[in-house]
Amino acid sequence: MDKLVIEGGVPLHGTIEVSGSKNAALPILFSAILLDSPFSFQNVPRLQDITTTIRLLRMLGLSCEQEGNTVRTEPGALNPEAPYDLVRTMRASVLCLGPLLTRLGRARVSLPGGCAIGARPVDQHLKAFEQMGARFDLEGGDIVGRCSRLHGAHIVFDMPTVGGTENLLMAAALADGTTILENAAREPEVVDLANFLRSCGAKISGHGTGIITVEGVTSLSGESYSIMPDRIEAGTFLAAAGITGGKLLVKNCPFAELETVVGKLEQMGMEITNSEEGVLAQCGKAGLHGTDVKTQPYPGFPTDMQAQIMAMMTIASRSSIVEERIFENRFMHVPEMVRMGAQITISGRTAMIRGVEHLIGAQVMASDLRASASLVLAGLAAHGTTHVRRIYHLDRGYEEIEKKLNAVGARIERVEQ
Ligand code: UD1
Predict the structure, then answer these.
(1) Residue 115 annotated in active site
(2) CA angle, corner 371, sides to 405 and 398, nearest 5?
(3) pLDDT for 155-174, tens place per residue?
(4) Calpha distance 100→171 (Å, rounded)
(5) Global confidence as pTM
(6) Topology annotation, domain 2-18+229-416
(7) What's the Cα-to-Cα distance from 360 to each of 229, 251, 353, 382, 385, rounded to whole Å?
(8) What is the DSSP letter of 91?
(9) How far apart are CA 235 and CA 368, in angstroms?
(10) Max CA distance (Å), the chain
(11) pLDDT, tens digit, for every residue of 85-117?
(12) Who lines ligand 1 at CB under 6 A?
């Protein structure tokens, strides 16, 4: 198992480029199940979760190859079973459920694993598929879904779920009749999926709002689509400029989709400007100061940036409060940051952070994807050496992170433990 060894205290300077979005790429790749044509997906990040998705698509009967940032798929005889060995490593595997049900009328998918950030049920997905005519049984830890043909329905989600909205969007694209998704997630990745499906002939409107309408069509096909840039990776780079007191030009940065994050970083004292070249981010002369953040569904502050902004708060002047409203168990980075000298107390879903002069390098353990990123940020800012263990989480979501950060001055080494 690899770990990252980070020599902290170096301000980052230079140009850094954002890769394609993992969270957009996953549902878009699973949509290959819906297609009647060979397809070329561009700007796909090279990440563990993408490798898992490709393996899963192959097991489900598609031909699928990755070359650099391109993934090519070809339709094949579909097999409706997603095996536990693959699914347990990636929660998003549940996104094959909608495409399989709508194409084959059958699907067997293990109950998902993935990041350890709370219970994360899929009840909303299943309830909605039931409204479209599917029945589900739990057999040996697998969700087994059956239907003759999915039909349109008026679905009202209890909460705006990203994965649920995506799964239903894919299923509804080829279902009989019209589906209305109410209280739908408005995340940019949902919009990217809808844009991709539309480019293949799907009839979708209202994406990006809380009500999405999908008129089912009989087939979907196309040639090529380029995945949107990763707003969370981009936000992490902006935070890296801020926490190290450096200055970064972040290229390929989805600025409009980062409005709330940029607003908070500016409140903390960062100067961020968007231009044709990219987004220039640096810490203002007065340094970082505390702020309050509450995570919310888009366009609110993303839970996937919560740990990273908390890393910045640990060395900001004044106190900060972070309220985590999406996942109940997403403060696992806190005890690790405390080991680095941060002053953080947790009460339920709220963390209170008192900024300290500086963090001190320590041995820390990554617990989930974004927590890992926050520990890398903390390590970049800390005095001394930080060892971040269990970085397989990081590799699930950040393409060549140490290479990118080292190119702008970071001193990160990947070593085998
Ligand atoms: C996606 C993202 C993840 C991000 C999250 C919230 C991917 C691959 N992952 O996860 O990085 O942190 O959105 O922006 O895109 N819920 C239920 N029942 C359900 C579905 C969800 O109770 O059937 C709850 C969840 O427990 C959570 C909330 O709804 O509290 C939001 O979850 P959801 O938006 O579905 O997150 P994911 O799609 O899993």
Answers:
(1) yes
(2) 40
(3) 999 999 999 999 999 999 99
(4) 8
(5) 0.96
(6) UDP-n-acetylglucosamine1-carboxyvinyl-transferase; Chain (3.65.10)
(7) 33, 31, 16, 5, 8
(8) G
(9) 17
(10) 64
(11) 888 788 899 999 999 999 999 999 987 654 444
(12) 23, 26, 92, 118, 120-125, 159, 161-164, 185, 189, 302-304, 326-327
